[in-house]
Amino acid sequence: MKVFSRLGLGLGLMGLMACGAPSDPQETDSRQSEAAVALPTSRLCSSVPCLPNLARAATVTVSSTTGSSPTQPDTRWAIDKALDGNRESVDGAFGWSSMSSGAESTSQWIRFDFGTQRSVNEVQLYARNDATFGTVLGDGFPRDFVIEVSADGATWTPVVTQVNQPTPTEQLQSFRFSTVQTRFLRIRATRLDSVSGSYYFQLAEVELYDNPGQLTYTFSDGEQAEITLDNGDASVSEDILVGEATELDGLFVEYQAYINQVGSAQVGSTDGVSASSAGINTHQRCKFWQVGCWKRKIIDSRWPNNTVYYEFHREVSDANRQAIRGFITDWNSRAPVQWVEDTSRFSRVMFKVKNLSNACGNSIVGRSGLPQKIRIDPDCVTQRTVQHEMGHAVGLIHEQQRCDRDTYVTGIGNDSNNRKECAAKYTTFGPYDYSSVMHYRSGTAVSPQPLGSVGTSGSPGGLLLGCYDRLGIHKLYGVAGGPGPTTTDAAVCNLSRNAAVTVSSTTGYSATQPDTRWTSNRAVDGLRDSNSTSYGWSSMGASSAATTQWIRFEFPFERRVSRVDLYPRNDATYGTVVGDGFPVNFSIEVSTDGANWTSVVTRTNHPRPGGVQTYEFTARPARFVRVVATNLRAVGGMYYVQLAELEVF
Ligand SMILES: [Zn+2]
C-alpha cells in the first residue's frame, strides 16, 4: 500500500501559498500599476449593526412630545420609540413626534447627553414611513435644522446645517461631519414639515455613530484592503480576500481595536477558531465576522458538490481569459472536482492577473467560504501555474511539504511555502511525486534534488495536473474507496503512459518496416485488449525460444516504482489464443541511470496466462524500468514477446 497524500481535510489554517514556480520567467521592468479601484463586493453585515449606536447609551431629552397635552404624551410617539432599534414607524412604536404647532417656523429638538466626551461624526435620521393616517414617507421630516454639539449643554456649535431639506425619498438620511469630541449633541429643527395641517418634527429612529468610514489595511505585497462602514454595516473591498492568514489576522486586530476603542457592547467573542477531531474547523476569519455582524462559519474547506465556482476580475484580458478557460477545460476533463464559471455564487474564486513581485501566482488553500482569489502574474499565465493555483484552491499543499519529503528531496527551505507539514490534518495520498504540478520546480528559491539520482535528472515539478494530483483530489473529496490507492486509482496513475518507450525489436516485414499494429506505442495506449488495429507490442519473430527481447521505459523524472502489470495478447486473429507470446522466462529490472540495473522480479517457466499478470515488489527509486525476456513463447511456429499492454506503478 502506498503512502502519502497531498492535502488535508478541513485545513483550519488556510495559509496563503505564495506559490511561485521560481524558475518561471519573471520580468523585472516596471509595469503599469493597477488602477486603485475599490469596489465593495462583500457585505459583511446584514441586519445587525457592526458599529455601536451611541444614541442608545445617551440620556435623551426632547423639546416636546405630541399628545393630548404636555402632561399626557402619546406613548406611541415618545422619544424612546425612536431609540428602540426599530427603524420602521409602526403603530404602537411610531418613533418620536414633537407637539403639534400651527407655525411652520417652530423650534423643536432632541438632545443627547453622553455623560462624558465621545467621538461622533455621523447622525442617521430614519424618516417616518407608516401610512396610518394617510401619511407618506418623509412626513414630519424637518425642513430646516441644525446638528449642534456642546461641551457643557449651554454653548452650542453647529456641525451640520440643513436648509430647505427636501422630503426624503429614502427612509435613511445620513449626515456626516468631521469627527468631534463632545458630551452633548442636539438635532434642532427650526422649520417643520406639515402633517395633516399641523407642523411636527417626526422621526422613526435616530442613530449616532463614530464611524471610521473606511479602514485601510496594507498587505505585505502592497495591495490594500478597505473596510467601509456605512449605515452601521461594514463592507470590504475585494482585496480583503487575499493575503496571508496572518496578515488577515492583522486586519482583524485592527478592526477589533477600533471596536474596542469605541466601547461597543456588541463586540462578540474572538474565539472563532475551533477544531474537532474530524478536522472540521471554524475559519479564522470568524474572528472578524463576530465583531458584531458576520455569522458565517466555514466547517469544511472542501467545495460542496465537488464544484468550484469561479469568475474573472474585470481587468483580466480576453486573451488571458481564453487561456485560463483552456486550462480549466483540461482540468475538468481529468479531475474529479469541476470548475464552473458562475458569478452568482457567494463562495467562489476570482482569477486576477496582476504583477506579482516574486511569485508566479498565489491562492489560499481550500475554500474560504468567501469570495477568494487566484492571482497570476502576467508572465505566468501557463498551464503549470494556473493548475498549480487551482490545486491550492481545491485544497492541495505543495508536494515538497509532505511529511516524508526528506526521503526524496534535499535543500528544501522551511518558509511557509516549503515547511514540512506533519500535522494530522494533512493527509497524504500516493507516492512522493516529483512530477506533481504541486511540486516546486528547481529554481533560485528552492532546489529540490531527487535523491538517488545522478547527473542532471531534470527539474521536478509537473507542467500540468498529474495523475497523482488527480488521485489526491479524488481522495480528498471522499470519492468511494477509502484511503490509499485502489486498483482503479492506480490505473489512473500508470507511469508507462508518460514514459519514453524503446524496444529491442518490432515485428514487421523488416527491421526498417515495422508492423504499425505491433509497435511499442500500442502497448502504452491504454487499450488492454489486443485487436487488429492496435494489438500491442510484438518483438521480431525468432526461430529459437532462447532469444533475448526487451521493452524499456524512461520516465521524465525519477519515480518510486513498486508494480508492473502485463496484459497478455487476447485476440484470436490468426487462431491465436490468450497468452500467446507471453514470455516464459523474464525479469523486471529497474535503474536510476539506465546503465546499472537491479532485478526486482524474476520468473522462469511462466505458465500461459489467462489474463492480466500483476507483479508487485518493494518500492524502488527508478528513472528506468525494463522487462527483459530470455525465453520466448511460440506463436505460429516462431518465437515472440507479445503483450497487449504494459502498465507501471
Ligand atoms: Zn503553490
TrEMBL record:
Extent of the signal sequence: 1-20
Domain Peptidase M12A: 296-481
Keywords (A to Z) from UniProt: Hydrolase, Metal-binding, Metalloprotease, Protease, Signal, Zinc
Requisite cofactors: Zn(2+)
SMART domains: ZnMc (SM00235)
UniProt: Zn(2+) binding residues: 388, 392, 398
Listed InterPro entries: FA58C (IPR000421), Galactose-bd-like_sf (IPR008979), MetalloPept_cat_dom_sf (IPR024079), Peptidase_M12A (IPR001506), Peptidase_Metallo (IPR006026)
F5/8 type C domain segment(s): 45-211, 490-649
Molecular function GO terms recorded: metalloendopeptidase activity; zinc ion binding
PANTHER family reported in the protein's UniProt record: DISCOIDIN, CUB, EGF, LAMININ , AND ZINC METALLOPROTEASE DOMAIN CONTAINING, METALLOENDOPEPTIDASE
Protein name (Swiss-Prot/TrEMBL): F5/8 type C domain-containing protein
